[in-house]
Amino acid sequence: MNGASTGRKSLPIDPNTHEPLPPVRQPGYYPGYSTLAQQTFWDAKTRSVILHRVNHTPPIRFFDSEQAALMKAVCDRIIPQDDRDPAYRIPIVNYIDERLHEDKIDGFRYENMPADRDVYRLGLQAIDMLAQDRGGLRFVNLDARRQDEVLKSIHDGNAPAAQEIWNHMSIQRFWKGLVSDCASAYYSHPWAWDEIGFGGPAYPRGYMRLEGGEPEPWEVDEVRYEWQTPPDSLSDVYEPAGGDSEQKGHPGQGGTH
Amino acid sequence: MRRFRDTDEVDYCIVGVGSAGGVLLQRLSRAGFQVVGIEAGPFWDTERDWVSDEKGSHQLYWTDLRITGGEHPLSLGENNSGKGVGGGSVHWAAFAPRFHPSDFRVYTEDGVGADWPISYDDLKPYYELLEREIPIAGPAYFPWGDPHGYPYGPHPMGGVGNSLIRGCTKLGIRVSAGGPVAILSGSRGDRPHCIYRGFCIQGCKVGAKASTLITHVPNALESGGEVRDCSMASRIELGPDRRVKGVHYFDREGREHFQKAKAVIVSGYAIETPRLLLNSACPGFSAGLANSSGTLGRYLMAQAGNVILGRFDHLVRLYKAPPAHAMTEEFYETDPKRGFARGFAIQTVGPLPIAFAKQMMVAKGAWGWGMRRVMMDYNHWSSIAVLGEILPWADNRVELASETDQFGIPVAKVTFNLHDNDKKLIEFGKNKVMEVMWAAGAEDVVQEDRYAHLVGASRMGSDPETSVVDRFGRTHDIANLFVCDGSVLPTQGSANPGLTIQALAARTADYLISQGDRIFNSNSRDMTQPPIRYNLSPPGTFWKGMPRMT
Fold first, then answer.
1. Fewest beta carbons less than 10 Å away: which of A9, A47, A115, B87?
2. Inter-chain CB proximity B321 and A239 less than 8 Å
3. What is the rounded CA–CA span in Å between residue B415 and residue B303?
4. What ipTM did this prediction achieve?
5. What's the pTM?
6. Which of B367, B380, B417 to mutate against chain A (most A CBs within 10 Å)?
7. What's the CA gap between A124 and A150, in Å, rounded?
8. Which domains are delineated in chain B?
9. What percent of chain B has pLDDT over 70?
10. Per the CB < 8 Å rule, is A251 touching B51?
């Protein structure tokens, strides 16, 4: 699974030069930081789980080839990775496919939602119907701006087509499930930890500098740089997901307390 | 480990070896009873099974299917349900405050919710006992409710705790720093002290955070108790004499068994306990075993758990230190000026990257490049949560769904609605925490609606018409069937329920021990308060060593 939308230029811009920032191995503000470089300090079980995640991209088994290509295009907009060197992109679709193939769920299903596998089958159909409605093309063939318009209409809870599918499942819950799955796949990967400066596995060594945001000896200081979102993108605006008030208020799911 | 046969009629069969079940198994075994704990999940080997990784810890949670609905549906699973020996205590963040004296008489004081059939004073000696057995680390003087101190010293502050202290100090709000948490600030026996790696809710591989898996179950096994893991209870069998005879369950290969027992204690927590009793419906109890009141499954509660996220110019690195390390209960009690009954606590939380990304999706509507950008600032954010009291309502309940699980057992359907008082409390609480976050110096503050913990649905009370169990956890309907876990709570306060659940388990154990064989051969109900047994703690865990409170 590499670059379905080949040739698309959707790169962040350097605000000083107004030139696209070339793809790099590791975006983010922690240059040279590597959690994987610390793996000898991890416990054996954790090391095997993380290395397996990095070195064994699960094959596509749940999605058919057309669905997989569509999912790839969708995930490329929900968690864009155009700023990453192609060899260092995280295989989000494969991780989602693995979850659905194994039929692993979070422990519940909303009473007004189909089972997760059906949610994806229906949701992908709906996305292509929205693409046809907006641009007369399959989603994979739309340009980045049009793709973002389709996705934003789902984010806003205001999709102008595929009504028969949204009657069958909540558009807001579909959106949140999709973004959650993409984010969970991306931010479970050590390359994403390096990008955001997260410490990664920390047993048995632990931390000694708890205060003041100071780095451990093996972490690095933050070095910020300015970047502008690619001009063909609509996703750098923070607006709460739309929909009726009941759906808007639906609570978070990730474990914190 | 001793192993009983299904055909052995053991004294007690406990369903669920979690926070309550672990303590019960330890106490009853130590007192000489023959006890089997049936546990749906595995008996963890923490070094071999657990990982220092967010995604890889999914197995700790109850991820089997449940249906959730209502106007404000609860998410279930990773946030509030454990599976495996230790249960929810394996993945709790481990804040361990006591309930306040007012929590036991909410109806009398505020005209809402319910009164407990016991008082704070009935539970206080068990709080003191469990705070040492677990043990709890925290300040020498905890000023709220019934003021008290903690046996282990407070933990050092992380970045999130510092923002809570800074914000509260600006606003003149008192803070408890470094606890109370069930995490060792110094080593004890073969348990090491905390290493501040922040993976508490992924299961403490270190062994510093308490779970009954390491605090009580080892002594239960030494005392002759059995844990039968990967065993899913499906039905409790009632005999023609209206006494239970044992528990039907499926083993790890899916084979069906029946464990005979003289008495049964259900400790499956707020969803699985009512589910099992509902699935045990039989002639005479067509609406569910021990449900003559019709209240089984009702009065389910979750606490408001809104997370307020603030971005700071400086680095916070919120992944370091236990998520639970500073709190305030300054807003815990009813204040008539606020226009609603009861209150809330404010506590630190520490979302790891996946949880944080999901929070940014809800709180900021982040996706696409916006998600990538805000996540690159992960280390600049701090996170403080409301823990607010939602009242018990009859329409918040657990029923059976038409779907079944992998064993063919009907799964739970959970319905949850917020009521007027709850909505006002949540609104006030989240605004107060946002105020704290701004006062701490944040430059951007957003919030996510969420819920934490689950209790109720099999509540205790004096009146058999309006409750499922009596004040010792015995079902009103069946003399040798007990419920002991978070589901018996009539109200929940604004305190994390873990310590109270374990204290109630130790109290129920004392009652059962004091009753001796009468539980097994008599239907009479002796409601005498049992003596507190100080000689049943796991060896070496109960001692004085407390700050003096005068």
1. A9
2. no
3. 15
4. 0.95
5. 0.96
6. B367
7. 12
8. 10-52+62-521 (3.50.50.60)
9. 99
10. no
